[in-house]
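Data deposition worksheet. Section B asks for the primary sequence of the deposited chain exactly as it was used as input, without tags or linkers unless they were present during the calculation. Section C holds the resulting structure in token form. Section D is free text for depositor observations; keep each observation to a single sentence. Incomplete worksheets are returned to the depositor.
Section A, Depositor: J.P.
Section B:
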Amino acid sequence: MSDPPVVTFGQLLRLLRAKAGLTQQELAERARLGVTTVSDLEREVALTAQKATAERLANALGLTGPDGELFVAVARGRALAGAFPAPRTRAGGVAAATRTLPRDIASFTGREPELRQLAGVIAGAARTGGVGGIHVIGGMAGVGKTAFAVHVAHQLAPRFPDGQIFLLLHGHTPGQRPVDLADALASLLLMAGVPVSHIPPGLDARMARWRDWLDGRQLLLLLDDAADSEQVRPLLPGSAGSLVLVTSRRRLTALEDAQAISLDTLSPREAAQLLVRLAARPGLGPDDPAVAEITRLCGHLPLAVGMLARQLQHHPTWTARGLAGYLAAARDRLALMHTENLSVAAAFDLSYHELTPGQQRLFRRLGLHPGPDTDTYAAAALDGTGLAVTRRHLDALYEQYLITEPTQGWYRFHDLVREYARALAATDQRFERDAAMARLFDYYQHTAALAEALLARQTRPGPAPTTPPTLPVFPDLDDARQALAWARANRASLLACLDHAARTDQHARVIALTAGLAGLLRHDGPWADAITCHAAAIQAARNLGDQRGQANALTYLGDVQRLTGDYPGAARALEQALSIYRDLGDQRGQANALTELGDVRSLTGDYPDAAQALEQALDIYRDLGHRLGQARALTRLGDVWRLTGDYPDAAQALKEALDIFRGLGERLGQARALNRRGVVWRLTGDYPRAAQAQEQALDIYRDLGERLGQANALTALGVVWRLTGDYPGAAQAQVQALDIYRDLGDRGGEAEVLNETGILHRVSGELAQAKECHQQALELARTIASSWDEANALAGLGRCDLAAGRTTDARIRLQQALDIFQRIGAAEATSVTAELGAIPQAEPPP
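Section C:
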């Protein structure tokens, strides 16, 4: 019995296209027609075609002679579709077109991890009796989803003897609606060889017919450019014998039992290889610096890399170096990334237009953010909305692959998407952009001030921060741990906002943001960056005539200069701050500056002036009832008394400080007081209590992530372990401390630990290594004008000379050390005097 004939031109066109193994896009290209024209005819949106259109279709389908004439007549409505003989197989059935994959791309590059992942999953499924399952290949526009899927399909084709079918679903095709499910099923059935007359009219019936045909077969089905899960689900096989690959710009999270493969941009090496292959330039290799620069500026996005490569190929007079420079200098990189009627910006447009107006607004405003990443709070500030709405909008952007989520709750643009978002934002009203940026700065400025208040070693003079009325939401920071975590997570954004404020002469923002960053910059360094920031804040305060802001910034600057070993610079900054605070009558500011100044004077060996400054600070703090300030001043006083050998007073001051810190729940202060008490106990010979105090301090420092404190505690522990004979433990502690000091740029700490390492080498009999360490410490101490470290280095060198039998050299070195210790009033003068007295007056003959 013969099969019933087709009855409409749309059915005839779909059947003949399927027989020819063409997609709608490919048929349209062959016929030089728009793909919408072919789609409308097949779906019978248009029931007939114009003569020229019909003739082009006939030629594209290879219909000549009577067949071509009859096809044109049917297309124009002048003959019945049933008069056209349906193509038949040798068995008499309608011909199937089950080898419809587009050609593989010869220049396909990279994706080895994803290929291995997919191959491994399919191999595992085969071992358990299945074949492949469902795999959704997602990624941002231009990342190469279809190219990857087609490449995979060609590699896997031999495993699927019943065919490999490609179906374009037009989920994001410009000017075209997504393929209707009934039409998609009809196309699949036609390609499978099912006669038109046997294709049922209803969606459910077509689904059942399609799954019935698939049952028992091993087919590879590639569904390209899916709009959503609903467009894919009815097309899936009902049994496990087939493999389905789906590509989409959206994350199809509602598609059951689907394995997700999200494609990222290419690696720098892969992007360079792709550009070289496509450019086909003699002598151009992937290691060429210009190639690396072009691909970097393309964000390693395959679509962009391909466009630039083809420009090189079609412009023989261009050079890769010239193109790289042109691209780097361009104000609108996206405008350069195009070929014929394709462009990167147009690819992004398709995803952007899928968003709701509210989602589009957030996308544009995220483009204004000067930093690399944003969290939900910053996004809410930019958009002027609440957290719940912002989260929903961010989820939508994420689902469309317009943003990534490198860590939970943090979002990032690809470089080119960021540029695209900024270009869109530039079309908004100026007042809207300014208001969004003001809210963002308010958020960072206010929350940074809250974090700094928890991290600060001194309470900053001036009014307490108030919540700006424009700020919708901000995080709760309950303690120093949360404050440090927030500051660290937002460090790059805070610095980017600070740079933006400086470039745009927003002096008040510069002062406030720098003050908010002070604790973090002191905590984590690098201190050279901190000095630059505080210097800029000082100038901004001068520009505004803000004396308190200037004095605060000078105090911050002096603190960091002290940490870097610039003691003269630190003293100048702190004395200027103190003078301004006195002019303003700001007692808290005076106490803060005096405390820092006392520390500097102590480090330069001026112990009497150091004690005087710290006692003045302590008196002011007591008058103000400022217990935190009292504890910090007492801690510094304990240092001075310990250095001058007054161990009982040092121990008492440090005990008072520790009690206050504990009463306030101030853990960082507790760690510092414990560290100093441990040193006093070690100097008085109580090594067990000394080690216990340093270990407690180290635990707190590590728990808080305070790296400088860790280095200080490790240095002190190393000394205790050396004195108790644990040389390996001491060496390990000193190496760890030295790494931290050098990473932070703490030259004073570096000099101290170098001297301690020298002592360890000497007592271990390694005199050459010991002298090298002390010599490095001596040079460093003289560079930073640290008298105490200089004297310790000289004493260490003298002891090395004495151990080597060079008594004359030893006497000279030790006398130099003694002169310094006596000048600054250091406790070490007593022991060095005794050592000098024990040296024989004349060297023995060699």
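Section D:
The two ends are 122 Å apart (CA to CA).
The first strand starts at residue 133 and ends at 138.
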